[in-house]
Amino acid sequence: MIVINRSKEGIELNLTAIEMGKDLCIVLTGGESHLGAVTVGAAGMDPETVAIGEHKEYHVTEKIAKILKEKHSGSFAICSGIHYDNIETEGIETVLQLSCEMAEEVCLILGSEM
Questions:
Q1: Closest alpha carbon to 82 in 39, 40, 41, 27
Q2: Domain harbouring 26, CATH code
Q3: Any residues with CB less than 8 A from the CB of 108 and at least 6 apart, and which?
Q4: pTM: predicted TM-score of the whole model, two decimal places
Q5: In sequence order, which residues have a C-beta less than 8 Å from that of residue 29 and are 6 or more positions away?
Q6: pLDDT per residue over 4-44, tens digit each?
């Protein structure tokens, strides 16, 4: 299991990655945790996303999926729920930046560069 915590400008994110053989399950939360979106995929296939209700975390899960599709050889599932009251555009950009950095770090830790 890989655990990565990052914070920047009042945004704190927590990522847990669980290896399932050569496959990977990532849970990414921040602020008030919940389940907002799930994206699944694998190298060679287009990722599929389910957004739950009006949640917008699919923006995050789909960016992470793009990274994993390019750098991870197995299948993956990304579950995310991040909520900060009254988050501004800069805060959303910080969430996206930190999320991508954390996904890249997971790939480096796993040594799964293709």
A1: 27
A2: 3.30.230.100
A3: none
A4: 0.91
A5: 13, 14, 80, 81, 82
A6: 999 999 999 999 999 999 999 999 999 999 999 999 999 78
